[in-house]
Amino acid sequence: MRCYVLMGVSGCGKSSVGTALQVLCDMDFVDGDDLHPRDNINKMAQGMPLNDADRAPWLADVGRMLAQHDGAIAIGCSALKKKYRDWIREHVAEPVHFLHLDAPQDVLAQRVAHRPGHFMPASLLDSQFATLERLENDEWGGEIDIARPFDQVIKQSEDYVRGTMI
Fold first, then answer.
1. Are 63 and 90 in contact (CB under 8 A)?
2. Which of 104, 95, 42, 86 has its CA nearest to residue 67?
3. CATH number, domain 3-164, options 3.40.50.300, 3.40.190.10, 1.20.272.10, 3.40.50.1370
4. Count of CB atoms within 10 A of residue 46's CB?
5. Range 146-149, long-range pairs (CB < 8 A, 24+ positions)
6. Which residues pair with 3 in a beta bridge?
7. Does 144 score more than 70 pLDDT?
8. Longest C-alpha distance within the chain, in Å?
9. Helix, strand, coil abundance in the chain, percent, nearest 5
10. Is the dihedral of CA 120, 130, 108, 53 positive or negative?
11. Is the pLDDT of residue 7 over 50?
12. How wide is the angle at C-alpha 103 spanned by C-alphas 15 and 12, nearest 5°?
């Protein structure tokens, strides 16, 4: 296995965990925010949640990047609904593992509130939690409790990746 998506709502640590895995597991990491079209970023910056039509081209780009990449790769991408994860998988001929970085909403609200300069305002966190569909039994992946100390989050994430890499 070589394709991983670090998923979850805003502020869950997709970039921090991805950067750590890049070093620890000798894999590439791409921040999915960098793949968003400018219109999506502008919309979110104005406090407006994205709809499925906004997300579809972005999720297709995430899937294509996973498919076209040589070697192990992790991409940070919210992938909040099962159908969004399905849209990503449509572009990849091998299994895609989703690591759901999860914590209670109040924990994430505090984190998002302390991220000055990020385009995603804390006001959109409610809509993200309303949209979130947890991983189902037929999906490859696991849940990582990010309310724990960061070193434990990284260790659990690394153990998952190392246990699935071939």
1. yes
2. 95
3. 3.40.50.300
4. 9
5. 146/8, 146/12, 146/13, 146/17, 146/101, 146/102, 146/103, 146/107, 147/103, 147/104, 147/107
6. 73, 96
7. yes
8. 43
9. 50, 15, 35
10. negative
11. yes
12. 15
Nearest to 3 by CA among 23, 21, 24, 15: 21
Angle value at C-alpha 96, between 90 and 98, nearest 5 degrees: 115
| pLDDT class of 1 with cuts at 50, 70, 90 | low
Cβ–Cβ under 8 Å, residues 161 and 21: yes
Helices (H) and strands (E) in the chain, counts: 7, 5
Residue 115 confidence class, pLDDT cut points 50, 70, 90: low
Domain boundaries, the chain: 3-164
